[in-house]
Amino acid sequence: MARKEAVEIKCSGCGTEFRLWIPPERLSGNGGSEEFGCIKCDDHFIIKKGFDGIEVTNPEGDNIEVARDEAAAAEKIQVLFVDSDKLAVAIAESTLGETPIKLTSATSGEMALEKLGNEANRFALVVSDLHLKESGDPEDKLDGEDFLRKMGERDAKIPVIVTTGKDIVDDIISDSKWFDLGVKGFIQKGNPFWAEELKIKLKELLELD
């Protein structure tokens, strides 16, 4: 389903405050901007997608007071991303930045269990690396499979995508234990396009357009 960007605007002409729901495709053409008019007076303003989110200016280029709707921000789909490789975390966050998905990252199985807490099911999906103990940190005692088993013991029925930097072979994927652990797919991080593949898989499982 397509998500709209919610923007609250205060008109600089009459002071009227109102909210616009903007389909992303409206900002994909015309140089990435769209002109709108105030709902009460004749003032016009231009909305465009900036580096830090939605920007609103008048036709002369002066900024107009704007705030992202906090309720809309809260609607983002929560996904727990578990990986001891901080670069992998950064790549995933960058790739998913323009999607309705909000990543919560954990660099160990122990940290991931803390993030899950007593409200594990607030996460729509978990992405976990298979080889968490290879970080070199002696405090990391849980590997990917160990973490998934611990998560299952909490009765957290959350679908899982498993990632690994090693080659995925058919006999690993076909092992029925992964089905029992809620695994819905595997991503091989040795592939330079692994983050895009992850995005596609997440959208498929979360039923996002």
Overall number of strands: 11
Number of domains: 2
Order of helices and strands: EEEEEEHEHEHEHEHHEH
Helix content: 25-40%
CATH topology of the largest domain: Rossmann fold
CATH H-level homologous superfamily name of the largest domain: Response regulator
Structural class, from helix and strand content? alpha/beta
Q: Which regions are unreliable across 5 or more consecutive residues at pLDDT < 50?
A: 68-73
Average predicted local confidence, pLDDT: 80
Specify the CATH class of the largest domain: Alpha Beta
CATH architecture designation of the largest domain: 3-Layer(aba) Sandwich
Gap between N and C termini, in Å?
Answer: 5 Å
Largest sheet: 5 strands, parallel
Shape: elongated
**Computed Rg:** 21 Å
Strand content: 25-35%
How do the strands of the widest beta sheet line up side by side? 8-7-9-10-11
Keywords:
single chain, 209 residues, alpha/beta, Rossmann fold, 2 domains, five-stranded parallel β-sheet, three-stranded antiparallel β-sheet, 7 helices, 11 strands, elongated
Description:
The structure is a single chain. By secondary structure, the protein is of the alpha/beta class. The chain has two domains: about 5-70, no CATH class; about 75-205, Response regulator (Rossmann fold, 3-Layer(aba) Sandwich), CATH 3.40.50. It has seven helices and eleven strands. Strand 1 (about 5-10) and strand 2 form a beta hairpin. The radius of gyration is 21 Å and the shape is elongated.
Please sum up the structure shown:
The chain is α/β, with parallel strands linked by helices. It is 25% helix and 29% strand.
